[in-house]
Amino acid sequence: MNNLLMIMLLSAFISCKKEALKSEVILKEEIVKPHVQPEGKPTNIDSAIVISLHNKVLKDFYTSTNYRTVWQSEEKRKIILGQLLKSDEEGLIPEDYNVKTLFDFEKKATTLDSVDLAKYDILLTSSLQKYISHLTNGRLNPRKLYKNWDLKENYIDLNATVAQLLKTDSLAYKIEQLKPNHIVYQRLKKALQQINAFPKDDFKPIKFTKIITPNDTNPSMITIKKRLIYWKELQPKDSLSPFYDEETATALKKFQSRHGLAVDAKIGAGTITSLNFSKNQRTQQIIVNLERWKWYPKQMGKEYIIINIPDYKLTLVKNNDTLRTHRVIVGRAKRKTPVLSSKLTQVVFNPTWTVPPTILREDVIPAILRSRSYLTQSNIKVYDSNGRIVSPYEWQLSQAKTYRYVQSPGTFNSLGMVKIIFPNRFSVYLHDTNHRDYFDKIDRSLSSGCVRVDNPLELTEYILNDEVNWNLGKITETLQNERTKFVKIKKEIGFHLLYWTAWSENNKLIFRDDIYNLDANLYDKLRN
C-alpha cells in the first residue's frame, strides 16, 4: 500500500513538472513554497478560476495565499502597473503584460465585485510573474536558439520573489534590482532612449559605386551629408553641395569611429552600408541586445575577463573598474566563436597544437593532398592509432581521419607562445598567434573559433599574479627553452565570451557589424 502511494505521488509530481514546462513562464520548480499572508481585507478567490489557467507557478502562489487576493494596496498596484507600462524601456512589450485590461480594472477598482476583484488580482500577479521572468531570463531561450551558446539559466524563484515584493516598503526599488545591472545593459537602455528621440527618417539606400575621398565631387555626397546631419555628426546647412569638404570629412570620421570602421574619411562599401541603416533598424538592433543581456550572467564575478565578439575586444574588469584591454581575433562566420561563461584555470607555455576535426577536414588534408611537404613546412607530426609517427610519404588519404596531427611548440606554432584555458564543451581557448599582423585589421573575424589575443604575455603575467616566479622576464626565459609547461591559475578570474552589437558611450550611439548575422533573425523571433 505504501509503495502504491509513493508511485501515485511520483506520478503527480511528474505530471506537474510537465505542466510547468508547458506554461508561459518556464522556470525551475520552486523548492520552497512561501506562505503569503495578505494585507488589508483580502477577497476569497474561487480556486477553479486559477486552476483553469493551467499555470502551475500561479496556482502554487495562490495556494500559498489560501486562495485570497493579495494586491489590496492601491499604491503597490499602481507601482506595478507603472513598471509594466514602461517595460518598453527594457526592450519588452507592454501588451505582453495585459496592460490595457489591468488599467481598465484599476479605474474601477473601488466598485469591482468580488469576482472581478479576484480576476484583477490573478491577472496582476500572473502579469508581474511574466514580467519578472522576462527581466531575469529574457523572452526567448538562447539554449533553444543557438547550438554554440552555452549560458546557464538565471534561476529565480518566482513565487518567493513575488512574496518578497508584497512585503517590501520599497517596491519600485526592489523591481529595479531584478533588472540586469551591468554597465553595458544600462548603456543599452540609454541608447534606446537616445534613438527614440530621433525624428522619423525617410532613408533610401545609397548605392556604392566607388570609394569617395576628401576633395572629390560626387552626387551621392548630398545624401551622405543629409545622413550625417540626421545622426548629428554634421551641423545642419541651408544648402548642400556634392563637394566632399574638410568639415564633412571630420564628421564622417566620427561616424566611422562610432561604427567600428576604419577612421580614414574614405567612403567605401563598409561606410555606405552603415550609412544605409535606418532609425528603425538601429532601434531593432538595440532591442535584441537588451534581450541578450537578460540571458547573460547577473554576476560576472569580482574579477573577470569579458570579450565582446563583434567588437574584437577583451576587457579585464576588477571591482567594476577596467584594468586593461586587448584586441582579439575571433571566429569567422563559418566557424563562429561560441558564447559562454567559464573561469580561467591554466596557462600553457610553448603549447603544442593538436589539429581539430574541422580544420583537419577543411584545411589540413586538402593542403597535404596538394603537397606532402606541407607537414614538414608546418612542423606538424602525424601519429597513427598506436602512437607511431607516420612520415609524410607514408601518409594515406584512406587513413587520414584516423591519424592525430600535432604541431610542435615554437614561434611558428599556430597557437603562438602561450594559450590560456577555460573549461568549455567547445574546446576553445585564448591563445597567442604567429600572425600578429592580423591585429591591425579592422575586420578580425578570422579564426577557426578560438580567440587570439594581442600582447598575450602581458595578460598572462597579470593573470598568474606572481611577481617572483612569473614576471615577464621569467615568462620569456620559459618560452626560450621551447618546452611545453603547464601553470595553474591560482586566483579566481571569471571568463565571459559574449555578443553585443550596440550600446551608448558618452551620449553617443555605438554600433558594431553583426558579424554572425544574428540581429535581424532574433528581432523577428522576439516580435513574431
Q: CATH-wise, what's the superfamily of one domain?
A: L,D-transpeptidase catalytic domain-like
**Secondary structure category:** alpha+beta
- End-to-end distance: 51 Å
CATH topology of one domain: L,D-transpeptidase catalytic domain-like
Unreliable stretches (pLDDT < 50, length at least 5) are 1-31
Strand content: 5-15%
Radius of gyration: 29 Å
Helix share bin: 25-40%
Beta strands, count: 18
| Count of DSSP-assigned helices | 19
* Coarse morphology: globular
What is the second-level CATH architecture of one domain? Beta Barrel
Provide mean pLDDT, rounded.
92
**Could you give a short account of the major beta sheet?**
12 strands, mixed
CATH class of one domain: Mainly Beta
Structural notes for this entry:
Belongs to the YkuD family. This is Murein L,D-transpeptidase YcbB/YkuD. The active site is at 431 (proton donor/acceptor), 450 (nucleophile). The structure is a single chain. The chain contains 19 helices and 18 strands. Among the domains are: 17-179, no CATH class; 299-359 and 396-502, L,D-transpeptidase catalytic domain-like (Beta Barrel), CATH 2.40.440. 35% of the residues are buried. The protein has helices at residues 2-22, 47-51, 56-64, 74-85, 99-107, 114-137, 142-145, 158-167, 171-177, 183-196, 220-230, 246-258, 269-275, 279-295, 357-370, 373-377, 456-464, 472-480, 519-527, and strands at 149-150, 303-308, 313-318, 321-331, 339-343, 346-349, 353-354, 380-383, 389-390, 404-407, 418-421, 430-431, 445-447, 451-453, 485-488, 494-498, 502-505, 508-511. By secondary structure, it is α+β, with helices and mostly antiparallel strands.
